[in-house]
Amino acid sequence: MSMTAVEQRGVAKAEDRGVGRTEDSQARTFAELMDRPALERAYRYATLMLGDRADAEDATHDAALTAWRHLGELRDPGKFEAWFGRIVVNACRDRLRRRRRMPIHVELDSELASPDANDDFAPRDALAAAIRSLGADHREVVVLRYYGDLSVDQIAARTGVGAGTVKSRLHYALRELRAAVDAQDQGRFRP
Amino acid sequence: MKSDESFEQDVRASLRASAPGQVPEDLVVRIAAIPVEELATARVHGLHLFARSAVNLAAAAIVVVAVAALIISRNGANVPVGGPPNGSPSVAAPGATSSAATPVPAVSPSPSPAAQPGAVPALGLSPASVTFVSADDGWVLGKATCASGQCAAIARTADGGRTWVAVSAPDAPIFPSPNDASPGISELRFADALNGWAFGPDLWSTHDGGTTWVRQAIPGVAAGSNVAALEAASGMVHAVVFDGSAYRVASSPVGSDSWALAAIRIPVGAGPVPTIQLVLQGGSGWLLENDRTVVAGARLANGAWVTWQPPCATAVGPAFLAASGTLDLAAACDVGLWSNPTGEHLFLSPDGGSTFTESVTKVPLTMGAMAAAASPSVIVVGGSDATGALLVATFDAGKSWSVVARLGSVQIADLGFTTPSQGVVVAAGANVPATLLMTRDGGHTWSPVGQAGS
Question: Which of A159, B93, B215, B385 is most buried, with most CB under 10 Å away?
């Protein structure tokens, strides 16, 4: 047996080997801000927007990567949620653009994908399908308003469009959803 | 027809029902890895900069251990976390009782006075690299304060780490800066009481037990090439050198500086941070290159380095080798680290790396960093989980695992066994003093040694 003691691993000491205070500080800030609630919000929004969990994971990762690269632009850590929220919105838009009008694959939760005797289930399922069928701009404001509980002004800031546009999109989105559910209801009870 | 308010409630309920559950843990790990990936990429601008790649990885690795652990722990990732074995208290975070600003005692260039009987003198330096050639004889390379600031220093023990004296060190910068052109040393190996080498990226040798050191040049590679790894066994020393485009292996008898370059060339991978591992046991040896994932390997057989298919080549993650005999090889692999992480897996080879079999139980780590084998069935793997850096061990060839040391926010280096019962590891963090730890019971317990006041 060799009596030389150890196996080289090539790892070393941060303070001496290049992790400067700035980088270390940035890494720690990133770790502190990118907490579970932030990741949950990002991932759930991305899933609702993209309808595909793999895509949502990639979009969330893209957003986190962008956040890391632009962390120095975040002047007030207290505004991280809104700042990161805008990044997530844009990451999802990028993903949607890449699809180039390809049909969105919808991945249902297993409990939602299976039949249910509950009377409320079918209308809600129809509503869920209708939400997923909305155009991206409409789905975006619906998710931010009714899942993210953001105000119209907050949605405007998050999406970069005017408050009037947000209101308009919400109005037409809700009208579209209601029409879809009504059509479903009529179909269910048609003899 | 429902009212607007009622319909909006339906929309809320539908969205809540459609929203996914928790963030997948593999996504948490991927995001936790962003700082290390980005910092490493920023440092390595091209292959010509590779001379510092091992250092770059090291620098980045400390971030991933600290930051990933922070992100994962803050996010409550469901990672397997074992407890210390019964009767084996975990090791306290190195330096937990000391401030990072605690001055490091100076090491004089001449041997220190002999220790008083019963005294346990401190190492007198901040350890970076450790090497033992027997259960008694070992050396530690580290950093000490000196008139010009921070200097390389070496401490020697002749009683298994119980007492230490300072010996001469190469006149070279310790932990050279990330500047590509910076010369210096960062690691230390001895083959026996007389012959030793300090390296990374420079190469220095001594043949008089460290009294004098001479800087080496390896024929056939450009001056200033980076010595990325070095080990000695069976009368030969092998150094892995990056020549600007590929890894080369140079070998020499331990008692002379007669370096000969092997024909084999190991190209670097496509990733940003290639690193090389060199593991020797008797006349056998293995080289494994990680570049985020396992890229290439080489094997020392019948005195010659030849191409070798390393384990976990398709694992989409790095592997960490350890050997306990000329045929007994272990590989801890971060399977799917850069795709869909499935955790740390242990693979064992009884035939020198020709074939591998996965052990029964996964290694309870989120990410691995290194491995050491005391025997074919006793393997210690260092890495991190949600709590930070730790050592986990199996004493039954991977059937079961236990946490044997929790180290906190540190990076671990030079994990290895000198004998089946005695082993070493260096733990160092950005905000805690570096610590040398040893086991004397085959990896069951690990204790700091050579600390001031210990």
Answer: B385
Against a cut of 0.90, is the pTM above it?
Answer: no
Q: How many CA atoms lie within 13 A of B320 on its CB side?
A: 27
CB distance A143–B15 less than 8 Å? yes
Separation in Å, CA B213 to CA B77, B167, B208, B313 = 49, 11, 9, 39
**Distance to chain A for B337, nearest Cα, Å:** 14
Contact A6 B372 (CB under 8 A): yes
Q: What is the ipTM of this complex?
A: 0.78
Please report, for chain B, how many H helices and E strands are present, in that order: 5, 28
Series of mean pLDDT values for 10-residue runs along chain B (454 residues): 83 88 80 74 38 36 43 37 27 28 27 31 84 94 85 93 92 70 86 94 93 93 88 95 89 95 88 84 93 91 93 90 94 85 90 93 91 96 89 95 91 92 89 88 93 52
Chain B positions touching A174 (Cβ under 8 A) are 4, 7-8, 11
Q: Please state which CATH class domain A116-191 belongs to.
A: mainly alpha
CATH of span A1-105: 1.10.1740
Q: Which residues in chain A are classed under CATH 1.10.10.10?
A: 116-191
Contact state of B186 with A174 under an 8 Å Cβ cutoff: no
Residues of chain A with CATH 1.10.1740: 1-105
A18 interface with B at CB cutoff 8 Å: yes
